[in-house]
Amino acid sequence: MARAYIGLDVHKEVIAIGIAFAGKDEAISYGKCSGDIERLLTALRRVLKKHGLTKKDIRLCYEAGPCGFALVRHLLRIGYVVDVVAPSLTPTRSGERVKTDKRDARKLASLLRAGELTAVHVPDEADEVIRDLCRARTDAVTDETRNRHRLGSFLLRNGHHYTGRSPWREAHLKYLRELVLNNPVQKTILEEYLQAIDLSVHRVGVLEDHMRTSLESWTRKDFVSALQGFRGFQMVASMVVTSELGDLWRFKHPRQLMAYLGLVPSEHSSGSSRHQGPITKCGNSHARWILIEVAQHYRMSPKVSKELSARQEGLPRSVKALSWKAQQRLNKRYVKLKMRRLHENKIKVAVARELAAFIWELSRVLPETPAKQQAAA
After folding, report:
1. With the C-alpha atoms ordered 138, 345, 244, 360, is the resulting torsion angle positive or negative?
2. Contact 322, 361 (CB under 8 A)
């Protein structure tokens, strides 16, 4: 049991430090230090020396935020016990109207001592690198889409509209490059938009090549390959889901994974009344988005296509059986909800919620892995 609990209110430029000693005394404020890790370590050494403590006698925490996990990794590496807590689950009094960094640090220290904080999962460094790579690819696709929309709006304002069947294919690009505009300045604008689109397409291709290369040395390659055996999951979607979710063995039940993804309906029930609202949208929005995109593939009848069969080559029989079970179950669910005339978006969310359960089960079906053995131990 720790003798002192230290709360850190971490910001880019400054870190406030609060200390709560074991017992019922109120937390005290130690002060502030620079946001640099070395300055924080100096401040922690002074705290230890002043109160006669060791690294094993204290426990630290700070809220997850934009500063990432570099701080917690460094502190864990040198022997400190650190928790990164969820800001949305930090208890807050309704009457609190004064908020400062020092107050927040003392509050974190007191709540850590009381055991009322919820720690978040700290991903491995390799998982975080792959996650950043996948998110960079998503940003490049977003930029490509925005550039295309800007070009389309520019041409529409000037009375030009492509009537072909396949936009952004070779025929469309040929049409754009041969388009004659009245003013030379407008032609320059068109060329700039086309170059921006070409650059975005090139960025997407380069990042996908990096993803393909990084996958070969990633420890979760087997899970990515197994996930590609599911309908709708190719390399990009599989790597995105795997990097965002990390180790699925921390979820004891698939409902915990559904709640983590924010795919469960909100609820406000009291007495005999029960009211369910929209999904909570808590947790990882990136993984939730990709699962909802994949869920629409299950509107079609169960089938092992040529492409899916190629992705399933070399996979265990249990993975193939689970993939087929998912197709049958999710398609049946899709059709049933469609017959009830639910909105298409609600159907996709419901299917994505059950798809998350199949992904959780996939982590249990795969052969023994180091993470699996550690969780069992």
Report:
1. negative
2. yes
Sheet holding 4-10, edge to edge: 28-34, 14-21, 4-10, 58-63, 82-85
The whole model's pTM is what? 0.88
pLDDT tens digit sequence for 321-349: 999 999 999 999 999 999 999 999 999 99
Say how many CA atoms lie within 13 Å of 256 toward its Cβ: 9
- What is the widest separation between alpha-carbon atoms in the chain? 80
Domain residue spans of the chain: 4-114, 125-218, 222-376
Q: What is the pLDDT of residues 256-284, one digit of tens each?
A: 999 999 999 998 888 888 888 899 998 88
Contact 60, 3 (CB under 8 A): no
Comparing CA positions, the residue from 362, 346, 347, 353 lying closest to residue 259 is 353
- E strand intervals along 252-367: 265-270, 273-279
* Helix, strand, or coil (residue 5): strand
Q: What single-letter amino acid sits at 14?
A: V
Q: What is the DSSP string of 205-233?
A: HHHHHHHHHHHHT-TTHHHHHHHTTSTT-
What are the backbone angles phi and psi of residue 314, rounded to the nearest 5°?
Answer: 85, 0
297 Cβ contact partners less than 8 Å away, ≥ 6 residues apart: 231, 232
CATH number of 4-114: 1.10.150.120, 3.30.420.40, 1.20.140.150, 3.40.50.2300?
3.30.420.40
Q: Is 66 helix (H, G, I), strand (E, B) or coil?
A: coil
DSSP lists the bridge partners of residue 73 as: none
